[in-house]
Input
Amino acid sequence: MSFLTPLFFLLGLLAGPIIILYMLRLRRREVAVSSTLLWRKLLRDREANAPWQKLRRNLLLLLQLLILAALVLALARPYLLVPGAVSGNVVILLDSSASMQATDVQPSRFEAARATAADLIDHLRGGDLMTLIQVGPTPIVLAATTQDKTALRQALGQAQVGQGAADWPAALSLAAGAAQGFQEARIVLISDGGLPAGLPPLTAEAVYRPVGEHGENLAITALATEETTAGLELFASVHNYGRQAQSTLFSLYLDGSLFDSRRLTVAAGGDAPLAWALPEGAAVVEARLAEQTADYLALDDRAWVVQESGVNNRVLLVTPGNVFLEQVLALLPGVELFKGSPGAETPADDFALYVYDSASLPEPAPAADLLLVNPQPDSSFLETTGVFSATTTVRLAEDPLLQFVEWGNVHVRQARLVSATWARPLIEAEGGPLLLVGEQAGRRIAILTFDLHDSDLPLQVAFPILMANLVGWLTPGRTFDAPPTLHPGEPVSLTPPAGSTAVTITTPDGAAWTAEVGEELLLFTGTEQLGLYQVTLGDVSGEQAAGAFAVNLFNPSESAIAPAAALTLGPTTVTTEGTAGVGQRELWPWLAAVALIVLAVEWWVYHRPA
Amino acid sequence: MLIFDEATLRKLEQLTLAAEQVRVGVLKGERRSRKRGDSIEFADYRNYAQGDDLRRLDWNVYARLERPFIKLLEAEEDLAVHLLVDGSGSMDWPREGDEGHKFHYALRLAGALGHVALTTGDQVTATILSSRGDGGIRGLTSDSFPNPLIPASLVWGPHRGRANSLRLLQFLDGWTAAGVIDLNLALRHYALRARRPGLLFLLSDLLAPAGFREGVGALQGRGYEVILLHLLSPDEVQPNLSGDLKLVDVETGADAEISLDGAVLGLYRKRLQAWQEEIAVYCRGRQIHYVPVTTNFPWDKLVLQTLRAQGVIQ
Output
């Protein structure tokens, strides 16, 4: 036991005055009585009845000295070095990544980590500050530099474990910010490891509190479909992160019904690649692992893949001959190009997009999206009033359609003067608009007012980008843009087709997220859960399913749940050992409590009825 | 202060001290004796025996019966009354004010009893038990005391006759109580000195460390009939003290440290009561009249009512 302020022991000299005062006090007031005979008898009686009466006076003195001793000791602030405690300005990084859901410690690693953090909160000294940061896919500061243990406990209770990987760089920069400017700053990482390499070094002293015991885990590390000449194929991979070989039952479900099961044995640290040929029309493929002997993380035992329906957008190009357009449309992904000649019979099939290049629109115009290049004057819903050659660009609209389009080098010889009340110009030249877009009678229409042969646009980098943007806007192929392997926390951009009013996404746990369709780009960020997300579009006629996307773990650093013995942060290695692991446990509150109790006892002794 | 008012005197003069065990009187007194005496009151006849005084022969009976009879007459005798007033330091209490002062009360009581005795023709001896140091008061020295065995005691008498009443009162006036007195020793000396035991009034607070029983026993052994008037001042019965005190005995100078609160005072009262009861039991067993008196009790009422009720006074 050591003392923070040993100088206060000088107050122990107050015992002298107390004893002196006591001796002075013992000089009782002298009162003459006729005889002390009876009083002596009385005293004899009392002493016979209560032998400690004689001691009572001394008892009071003893108690008072005891109070003084306790108070002086409390003021000297004794402390014990507690191996478990951390003191100073403490920043707790509470790992809430997917691997913290491992159940090798009961009930889960995250609950164990929560208990560790609660213990740290309990051991917090009076003047210590604590910051609590939950390190999930998005780090959250649960409680910022506070002494309030109640608030800290409450914040800790709100911490939730996520299903994705933790964003450690962001968390560490948050922690560095919280620790900045404080003496005795300590960062406590309560984690099971799995930190990415190349993290910046910490400015403050760091302590690592490992959570977890075992590393046995089988995981589906890959699940993907691919269209080959032979048809649709599914590839899967199962990895054993544990130390011993394990067998498992790999089951495959197509659209909810069991398709195949295979029993596998995966060597320790080994992979088991799998492949299937899938029947046509399979949309949602789910893989499950079951019957493992030891698997402490359930999150990576399931995986989903959504096979995009093979429908490409059919585009009809009507042109007297434009190799630039043909090539760029053929190269755009998701576009199946058909060609027609001006004046020829329009194919009866429905096309998602009609491109008319220097060709007249048929009457009636197809009820689909249109891209008009060098429009002819006989169009029914726009007016062409001549040509202009003052094509120096004066204004480019701020629009996502012009994203990455470098228009400055584009030269146009002449263009048609087109006016349409429903359209807004995106690119304006001195003489008139060069590019207009708009919606008319429920279809999207884009108009390039010049012949591509009259400009150097097809030779510029801007051309394929502009065309991709325009076609993407005109034929919103999928309602959402999800990469094939979507990780928890990654956003999904939504591009609802024209006419829809709302988008609803049903998360794996059944909750619904709905957004109104407006001008701005829609982004769905609630992908914290693993599983299938169903997308529903709403329009005036009702709701209709618009597909699904899957969020999978597929993260080796999360699936490798073996707890790390030490963490590497830049050049430093953070271990569980070290001086930082020893905190001070101050004892003065107990001493103060003892003083209070003894004071109460003293009072009672003094006023004790005979 | 000892002068009684006229009404009280008149009342006192109607009183007679009554001794249960009548003592042999030396002189003819005013009270009837169990002995046959030579008063004019007829008592009995008895046969003449040789040597009887012929003057007492009842000649009339002899004439009728021709047998000599001696006429026995009631003997009227006097009573020896001893008044012993404790003059120790503890009797000089309370110090503040005359209200309930034990010594003054005792002197006044002694005066009243002495007056009653003198009025009825008894022989009265008044003694103030005092320590040697106070002997010089009022010019009396130890040499003037008749009995060297109790040199420090102040003795008046024995005297008889109501004419001495005023002198008794004068004697009792003006003394102060002080010093330490061994009550046992003083009483034993008094008993040894006794020439004529009789009715003895002991007026004391009995606050003597060594006690009083031996002395009273010695008195009884010599044939005294003892009436114990136990005087306690009101503040001794109900002490008005509190706090942490060092109590100093005014008589012995001894001290006692005590912390007083309600409980301790309650204990004191119980203790006092037990003490008095103990004395009362002791006295009853030895045919001693024990009269506990609190000195705020009117003295005349005590004499006229309480002592009368006790049968000490008729």
User: Anything to note?
Assistant: The CA atoms of residues 52 and 148 of chain B lie 42 Å apart. Chain B touches chain A at residues 90-95, 102, 205, 207-209, 233, 236, 239, 241, 243-252, 254-258, 261, 263-264, 267-268, 271-272, 275 (CB under 8 Å). The two ends of chain B are 26 Å apart (CA to CA).
